[in-house]
Amino acid sequence: MTSPPEQEFRSGFVAVMGRPNVGKSTLINSLIGQKIAAVSPKPQTTRHQQLGILSLDEAQIVFIDTPGLHNPHHKLGQFMNDEAADAITDADLILFLVDLTKMPPHEEDRILIKLLDELDQRPMVILALNKIDRVEAGDLDQRAAVYEELLPDAVPLRISAIHADKLDDLKQSLISNIPEGPPFFPVDQITNLYEREIAADLIRAVCLVQLRDEIPHSIAVRMDEYTERGDHGAYIRTTLFVERDSQKGIVVGQGGKMIKRIGAHARSQIEAMSSRKVYLDLRVKVRKNWRNNEQALKQFGFKRWN
């Protein structure tokens, strides 16, 4: 009696696409089982590509977490759209995430669909219908059908990223549709970013939450120092850049209350991510109109411009 053939190992890149704030980073964190991508209730928390690497016995899935496609209003916005578009062409599979609580589909959903339609050779698309936990059971079929009509060739799956509902089904679908091949990364690697880059994203996400609508997306985070201090943990010195003097006053707050609050929340998140104590030193400076300044964008880590 012959033994059944061993299952071939599979490995591939999956571009996670969708409008801003649809839950892409939350989904990747849930799939990886660890917080590697900054999450906030605000759109455009993600500003560049980040890899989330899920290594399993039978496969390695490399998720590309990208900025949400949107109508850009400055050079930073165009950079973010270019990052998202590049991810599509590099991917073996596209995971299109939509928000079932949003009806009808947003213009930004249609921007992405148009981009997909313009591709000469489009990878397979899995349509992840997110936030099923927040939709009445009687409305699910109708809402799902609206999005499925927009992408009739896609494979639809209903999930809840935040509650990890139906994610095992999603993993199996991804594994079945990525190519056979060896892993791209060591099995213990979970992202392509360094710890200091993840920390910078966590700080900016905290700013978005704490400052609410007063300073929506005018903050850039520059890591000035990230050094180990033995048993004392890590020392992190960071500068927050805003575009106007009035914004600096809001970030600092009366008597420094706001910057202290931001620091306390960011420090706890960085400590949870890095599993050690950190000392976080935050400063605030003004860099006028930095989102339209190519030199500033390059300095802050947006490296598309040479």
Strand content: 15-25%
Please tell me the total number of domains: 2
CATH superfamily of the largest domain: P-loop containing nucleotide triphosphate hydrolases
- Secondary-structure arrangement, i.e. CATH architecture of the largest domain: 3-Layer(aba) Sandwich
- Reading the helices and strands in chain order gives EHEEHEHEHEHHEEHHEH
- Using the coordinates above, name the CATH class of the largest domain: Alpha Beta
Q: In total, how many beta strands?
A: 9
Give the neighbour order of strands across the main sheet. Answer: 2-3-1-4-5-6
**Which range best describes the helical content: under 10%, 10-25%, 25-40%, 40-55%, 55-70% or over 70%?**
25-40%
Report on this structure.
- By secondary structure, the protein is an alpha/beta fold.
- The chain has two domains: 10-177, 3-Layer(aba) Sandwich (Rossmann fold); 195-299, GMP Synthetase, Chain A, domain 3.
- The chain is 35% helix and 22% strand.
- The protein contains nine helices and nine strands.
- The protein has helices at residues 24-32, 75-90, 107-117, 140-150, 167-177, 195-211, 245-252, 257-274, 294-299; strands at 10-17, 50-55, 59-65, 93-99, 124-130, 155-158, 220-228, 234-242, 278-286.
- It has a six-stranded mixed sheet, sandwiched between helices. A three-stranded mixed sheet has the order 7-8-9.
- The protein starts with 9 loop residues before the first strand and ends in a 7-residue tail after the last helix.
